[in-house]
Amino acid sequence: MKTELVKMDLDMYYKKLDNGLDIYIVPKDNVNSIYVTLTTKYGSIDSEFVPYDRTGMTKFPLGIAHFLEHKVFEQKDGVDPFTFYSERGCDANANTSNFKTTYLFSGTNFFDENLNYLLDYVQDPYFTDENVEKEKGIIEQEIRMYDDSPYYKLYDRILHNAFKIHPIRYPVAGNISSIKKITKEDLYTCYHTFYNPSNMFLVVTGNVDYKDVINIVSANQEKKKFKKYKEIKRKVYDEPDTVSLKEASTTMDIEIPKVGIGYKIRNNSNVDINKFRTYIGMFFDIKFGTVSEFNEKIREEKITTLDLDITIVNTDKHVLVILSVDTNKKDELLNKIDEELKDIKIDENDFNRKKKVKKSSVIYKSDSIYAINNKIMANIIKYGKVITDEHKFIDELNYQELNEIINNIDLSNKTIYTINKKD
Amino acid sequence: MKYKKIKNHTYNLHIIKTKKFKTVTVQVCFKSLLDKEGITYRNLLINVLCQACSKYKTKRLMSIATEDLYELTYQASNYISGKYNVMCFDITFLNDEYTEEGNFESSLDFLCELLFNPLIEVTHSSTKFKKDNFALAYNLLEENIKTIKESPYYYSKMRLFEIMSPNSMHSYRSCGDIDTLKSITPAKLYEYYLNMLKKDILDIFVIGNVSEARIRSAISNRIKIRTIKKKSESHFISMKRTRLLPKTVIENQDISQSQLALGYKLDKTSDFERRYVLNVLTYILGGGSDSKLFKEVREKNSLCYSITSIGVPLQNAMIITSGISASNFKKAVALIKKNVKSMQQGSFSEEDIMKAKVTYINSIKELEDNPQNLLSMYTGIEYLKSDDIDGRIKKISKVTKKDITRLASKMHLDVIYMLKGAENED
To answer: Which SS3 state, helix, strand or coil, does residue B295 take?
Structure first.
């Protein structure tokens, strides 16, 4: 099926294979490279579910999706994917987020072999007690590396304190004690549950012919047998609307204290969740982003030297907006933010300018095979489909609707985390 | 893609005409010989110029202007390139075709406002940068310099160079230093700025689908500098070898993971060795997930998550970095030494060399897909006399095993540095 990606001067081809694998292809002939991602809809939050061979809910150690990502690279015949791709001059990698795990490569040559190999190594796991044990030391170092970053810690703790039961409150990589509990058997169980083609999708962007991609993937998949796919039952969390902990702090070996505020917001309106998330993002961007008067004020008053950083995390029910910055004057900053939020009105000109910016971003994105691929992946994970006409979506954003929505959200529901300087 | 360099006595204009992108990228680079104080001056100057100008008096107004220009993005950086200090300002914006007629000129106007019409105050005795804006820029840089330790990886790399070549150009911190910062006043910085406009070597790069005539006229109407500039020298500056035995330095910080950094100095090397052989060598040794160090230190011994070897061609050096547990210090260092020795002894295969070359060639081809990468390629050609894409592919193909072992034998371990954190013993 062919669909136009509006205002991007690109077409997207889609095909669902008999085994359930979804394929998305966006050919772009004025570049040299091709970027391929193979994703399973399995991330760090999927820690409790009904495994493919059982009937009851089972809980797995935190960080197992990320651990599995590391181990999928292990191959029985000894040729590991890094060597394979390096021989062909390609970059290969993988990553795990809260919601998905992605295996990828990019390069200019040997496309057929590379694509076949990606499907082959991801679809042929090989875990042993020994190779699972070996990985624990490596992941422990990865976790410690994150622990030493104050910004990562701030983000991690705010998520933890904002949510009470939803597993998004735990780090993607788990923690040092949880990963030590992971066994070979656990990995196989998670693998067979989530790495079925029906729970996966492939995105190819770059200098390719869409027919070639479909032929290569179809031929590859026809040769393989998969376990019968059973709709995955994930645990549903009845996450309360209030934050779990209102305020907390720690100390680190840093020069300037860091503070973050997480606003946990529930969609109480009639607009769909995607639009709701967009409005919330626009509101905070206008109030506290680079063009806000607020940032100018706090810099002039020497409360901060940098603009506030705005990060947004979405779960099925909630939007968590995190404002964070370095400051020596935490209390003043928090008061100013509270004061600013008492007046929730925003200027219509700002709103319209942000719409213009959003439209330009769509065009910018269309120049990069990485940005296009990432957009498709993010859309599928977030919305369950690819938004092919983003300009239409942006056009439908409405100033009145934004105001109504903002009037109905509870901005007092927040969690504050501070990292102080160690004495 | 068509490249053309137009020489002028005051600046060089580099036009890279291509239909590949919907964007146009313009970079303006000021280059001067490296001096320690200059680094801090230039970092502060970037902050002053990028936060406000005479037309857009605050950072907020500046940001609004960029949004009005269909989300133009601008950034500035100051980096050390061998014995030179390069300060770059660049903007990326959508071509007229995707916005409106004249967006090219309007975007250039924005850049020129920022560069040539700064926010100043004139009194009867002097002209200087406006105090309030200067203070904001000052605070920002002060915080940058102070927080460098908060990134243990960068901090350990910086300390490694300081210990390898103390009090030399190699030890200069690219973020600048507090003592110099304290000595800078709005008047002194303004004087530095005027001097920079007058004396720095100036290069302007334009990438995109815009005609040469239009670019030439737009640039010459806007760049009003008329002074004749000196010719550039080579950027290369070799580290002096003084130590016979490596020096071990361990410093403490309250962190969870310790940062290990090993510095190697090289004997006299040829241009070919630094540009090409070093590349193949560091790729095989610690260039990626298929390298010797990755396989041995990470995969076989589970000592780390990341380990990398990095060539520093402009300073004739190579470094190896890794994040480890402090208790594994000796084991990790021994394994690294063993693998460097195996490079010197030629314990690697023709396939290893092939992989390094194919990866290099692939990455060179990908350069053309992205305007920022193209920019760094053309600045490399201008500043470092790098070869063009075809030249690079030809020369990398010529690297032999003998070349690699010869270069490896020129490497001498100079400093073993660890920024030591918790012991983390089980």
So the answer is: helix
